[in-house]
Write a structure and sequence with these properties.
Length: 166
């Protein structure tokens, strides 16, 4: 695999939110989770560039076309007592895969983590996504089989919040 010589990686700007949201929908389709996308490009713009910034994104472009993205945010490791970066999404459009773009995005994010003195870079991968797991292992990642993701959303989140007030 050779890295596309026309590849440009750059931090997303407010005017990129429509294309970024289209990429998010493309990722959801790939992951068979299209019903899970309930937000909008306007909400994404507010969360990336509003008064309170919740996340950041890197866009990958080649020959003037957007090819993929990485969306990430900071977390914190109490054991390391250092900030970290959590990669929420990494996605490359099908026609641009196998050109080194995913590797370039992950490498760029690792360099951001090092620049910001982060102790780790981590992310999740769907259990069925063997191509992604193979790619991540090739990039030096450990896939932690003994950790499971816990999540509370929607009505359950609201109920949990109310139960804390009682």
């Amino acid at each position: 695999m050779t890295i596309d010589s026309d590849l440009i990686l750059r931090l997303a700007q407010p005017e990129d939110c429509d294309v970024l949201f289209e990429l998010i929908k493309g990722l959801a389709e790939y992951e068979k989770l299209t019903d899970a996308v309930t937000g909008s490009a306007a909400q994404l713009k507010e969360h990336l560039f509003g008064d309170k910034k919740y996340a950041e994104a890197i866009l990958a472009e080649t020959k003037g076309e957007t090819a993929g993205f990485a969306l990430f945010f900071h977390n914190y490791s109490t054991f390391l007592t250092q900030p970290g970066i959590y990669l929420e999404d990494l996605f490359v459009l099908k026609q641009y895969r196998q050109k080194g773009i995913g590797k370039a995005l992950l490498t760029k994010l690792a360099s951001i983590a090092v620049e910001r003195n982060c102790g780790r870079l981590e992310w999740s991968v769907l259990d069925w996504n063997e191509p992604a797991k193979e790619f991540y292992r090739h990039m030096g990642a450990d896939i932690l089989e003994d950790w499971q993701i816990c999540r509370v959303t929607g009505d359950e989140l609201s109920q949990l919040a109310v139960s804390s007030e009682q």
